[in-house]
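Just scan my protein:

——
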Amino acid sequence: MKKKLQVLSISLALTSAASILHAEGNINAGKQKATSCAGCHGEDGNSMVATFPKLAHQHSSYLQQQLHAFKDGTRSDPMMSAIAMTLADEDIQDISAYYAAQKVSENSLPVSVADEDEKPAGTNDAVQSLITQGSNLYRNGNLQSAVSACIACHGPFGEGNKPASFPALKSQHADYLIKALTDFKSGARSNNPENIMHMIAKKMSDQEIKAVSYRISMMK
């Protein structure tokens, strides 16, 4: 019961904080405007570099939110901030609509680098062990360390929540997810409602971050 209440309270708090209406853009116009994004994020939003996020099938509301954050400085990245500064509101809507309409690609099984408390690196057993741990953490959280379950905001299949602008996570690159969670943990990234991702990630161990990232990367 405590676990269910913890999941519900986080979900309700974030929904009330992030319920913002976003205008829908023009997909065809967005395809043309997104050509300069292809170098990092792929022509169809499926980046080939694991440290660059996939944008395909991401909620347009979330993409708009993040592009505006880069533009106004509430989220900082030298390259993305410079690009976002050149975009009008209509450009942001169109680009977001285009990527939201694309199909996200599936990932190969991650290749693990051994930690001290893992099985030998590179074995399927080591990777599957991490994925199993990540699956439990995603659905149930860690009551002992007060880590909230990811399912509360990102859905049972990593589909996110469009009205609340909570991002879809399924089939995202594991390396990017590890970086994002590590940045939330350190405070390097903090542009989310009530700074809730920092409050969650700071309680996660490095292995938990890796485990849940591996699990999410395998969601389809």
User: Anything to note?
Assistant: DSSP finds eleven helices and no strands in the chain.
